Amino acid sequence: PHSSPVPVEMVRQQLPFAAGTWSTAKGMSLFKQWVKQAQVEEGLYGSVALWIEQVQTQMHMSTAELPLPNSLQTVMSSYLLIKLCSVFGHRYWSVLKHLLSDIFSAVFMDWATVKDVFLGAATPEDVAQAGVFSERELFFEAHAGMSGQHEEHCRK
């Protein structure tokens, strides 16, 4: 059996943060640690698809206590989708990247800041190396923040 791509303890230590806003220095640090560890572990698997399944399983176990949607799952799933495209998506990358960009523009508030880099990527590997998911602001987080502000304003 392979070791777990991301130690549960590492994520569980960060759970109080993960329940809050992703778009913070601490959140970006957690994502970068997760990706770095996952990249090291990827080489232990004979199949990228098997590795992705393992990372997803670990991610879901580690974030089971968080409400959905949650930022860690959203950002990591986006990253894993690009990794999966590196296996089967080369032939169709010119089409896939436009479809994915449309989806990501509905997920990430600031997608326009990296859209050209994403669409200019010749391969999915170029996207993974560019780190386009490491500092994105998520729509659902912004909405939750606005809803909280609205509720507080209404109480006054």
Structural class: mainly alpha
What is the element string, with H for helices and E for strands?
A: HHHHHHHHH
- Rg over CA atoms, rounded to whole Å, is 16 Å
Q: Kindly, what is the distance between the CA atoms of the first and last residues, rounded to a whole number of angstroms?
A: 57 Å
User: How many helices does DSSP assign?
Assistant: 9
Averaged pLDDT, please? 76
Q: State the major sheet.
A: none
Coarse morphology: globular
Beta percentage is under 5%
Helix content: 55-70%
β-strand number: 0
Low-confidence stretches: 1-8, 14-19
List keywords for this structure.
single chain; 156 residues; disordered N terminus; mainly alpha; 68% helix
Describe the SSE topology:
Layout: H1 8-13, H2 15-18, H3 25-42, H4 48-62, H5 71-88, H6 93-107, H7 115-120, H8 124-130, H9 139-155
Helix pairs in contact: 4-5, 5-8
Q: Could you describe the 3D structure shown?
A:
This protein is an all-alpha fold. It is built from 9 helices and no strands. It is globular and about 40 Å long.
Question: In a nutshell, what does this entry contain?
Answer:
The chain has 156 residues and is mainly α. The protein is 68% helix and 0% strand.
